[in-house]
User: Fold these one by one.
Assistant:
Number 1:
Amino acid sequence: MYNICTLNKIAACGTDIFDKTKYAITDNVSGADAIMVRSADMLSMTFEPGLLAIARAGAGTNNIPVKDCAEQGICVFNTPGANANAVKELVICGLMMTSRKVAEAIDWAKTLKGKGSEVGKLVEKGKGQFGGPEIMGKTLGIVGLGAIGVLVANAAVSLGMKVIGYDPFLSVKSALGLKPQVAVVADAKEIYSNADYISLHLPFNPQTKESINADTIATMKDGVRILNFARAELVNTGDLIKALESGKVSAYVVDFPSDDVIGVPGVTAIPHLGASTPESEDNCAIMATYELIDYIENGNITNSVNLPDASMAAVGTKVCIIHRNVPDVISKITGVIGAQGVNIENLVNKSKKDYAYTMIDAIGSIDGIAEKLEAIENVIKVRVI
């Protein structure tokens, strides 16, 4: 019986997929074979040696110590694309909110409560302060053309916008998914200098931290409107606030409020609603469940953030090995297996940055093979399935 610990409420349409004769759902981390999580902070958690995997029911994994997990042989999954439509819809809402000052106007309208028959006149007198441009014909620049960025780009084209996108790691799938009207540029500078609206859809890492700062803002068009539904840390908020005060930036919509931006004129702070739809939560739960089942039962990896994707069918016994991506490990692994008189029917080896994953279809007696393989330098974890 495998124990699946849920640190947050995970949609039942996902957890119900687990075969109840094989899996038990629990909220107890101790003894867990896998963990399902949404936003719970796991950065200070200590993991038991038996933990095989963590599945994040969502895209971002900043709440999980991803590299530490790799060092312990714990595969970390996310669910890219499962919440993409939900985020896309809120981004489109954000486009309207930056242009038409909708949130401010609604707040102002509430102040008219109790004015009786004067409300109509006050509305007509005061509405001018909330005017703003239409988005049709304007240029939207999208930084990051993953699952969400592609959907936003296509939706904006349908709304009559000119769309330019930038992604140094544009996948074939994303490229094929873009409408032909979307112009993909080779440098983010082209986004900054040409866009009336800029929407951020890039991952947060040391290279992307504070991508929007005083220097990049200076290259943007006067009055640019910036949307951030990716991660708060992509923007230097101090620099952004100064740009709002000077008028260089007209508006900033962010789905990750922080104390320094809340209440700042020109900022619309949304309380992280990007994926807060029942459809999104269901999609993420279902995808995360299938990822865990395939890994636990078959050793196959799909959508891991710290290990490479890999899969293999086996006619014999499947031996799955997590190891560091350094020279000579494969030869040592095959040497140990061969010395035991076991035939390698098939072998798959994939790598991702500092770590690698090797799957071996073994024919023969594998008694004690896991212990022998784990004794090899740079081998982290071995599973026999």
Note: The domain at 311-385 is CATH 3.30.70.260 (Alpha-Beta Plaits).
Number 2:
Amino acid sequence: MHKYLALGWLISLLSLPLSASPLIVNIDNPSFRKIVTAVPHFRDQVKQQNSAALASWGQQRLRSLLEFSRLFNTMRGKVYENAELPLQSFRKLGVEVLVRGTLTKGEDKTMLLTLQTFDIKRKTTIIKKTYPDVSRANIDYALRDYGDTVLKTYTRKPGLFFSKIAFVGKRHRKDHKQIYTMDFDGGNLTQLTSTPAHHLSPAWSPDGRYLVYTSFEDGNPDLFIYDQVHEKHSKLSGRAGINSGGHFAHTGDIVAFTGSQRGDTDIFVIDRYGMSRRRLIKGLGLDVDPAFSPDGKWLAFVSGRYGNPHIFRATLNWSMDRVQVTDDKRLTYAGWYNANPAWSPDSRQIAFAGYDRDIDRFDIFLMNADGSNLERMTLNNGDNENPSWSPNGMLLVFFSTRTPQRKRKGAAQLYLMNRDGSMQRKLSTGLHTAQTPRWSNNIHPKAQ
């Protein structure tokens, strides 16, 4: 746990009474529009060395966090950044939400950061929090915490500013593929593997402590697990043949993966200590790409039992920590090849990659958990694969080989889009290639 968090925060959270009209913003409503927001310059009442720079950086960082959420339209320009402008003037400018920050000096002479969010139409303070002992080294924790509080207040969904993305990358074209992690916005890039072999298919445990991945470092596709607390890699499944594509169950104790036995490729499960390996799903043809639903009711997977690979959904029955499949059904019928199923956080939708033979492209699609309401999220922009949901279900990360020329495919890079397919934009990693992203849950450092 970060030492700053161990100090304890002075927190005051004010919200609208239950009798007031709700603040919930429904991003799936066709009439949804971003909330017009102003984040003026933070007031610096400390007036000491570095406080002005800290106030300036804090204002810019908080504004960028709110913009990243795609929920707020943060206005720019001198008039919107005037900290002394009265509320009525902001209202005349069309601002709906005002977020103010103030640096003050505490009794122990350390700096306090107070952040407030005002609903201008209601003339009400929605949120107010004070963070003690702030400095350049720890202010980002306070701003992320506050940003998450704002998101939870307006959407009733989890935040995302303490989440991370794991992915497969190469620094140079001829390098081996390695496992990397980074913050939700591309910051704090960290390389987790380095052996001269390919490493593939990372996936997070629900608590964000562990990552499973596939490695060829011993000459066989073996399943490994990485413990971030102890910074330790260990082999989870190394039987001859395939041990690939691990995915944690909602309990965090069981991993489903693609395994082979006597030449047959099926879905297996194993506990996170490498014990109790057994076959979960056996069918004609290949069964691969397992993905547990967050609520633990289902397992999505890809099967070629009827010819071309399509997505199936197995119904699960849990008895203590043991899981069994009671039945399964085919979900996709359209498309030549469908793969990479990814559950939304509420277990109501599945994003996946589908191959369109007519245009020779993989694209991202979305469907309900029962296979209904199929929607296409990408089109005519290279290959687009391996979608993964943000913790609040508002964004998707995926990789794409798109280039400005459109018809030409380039090196794979990570992209973000809103859950409706809008606002597609590149997530810069600085690497030659970046692919197979997996978004973690929002794990606050206080919980680690």
Note: The helical segments are 3-6, 51-68, 87-92, 139-155.
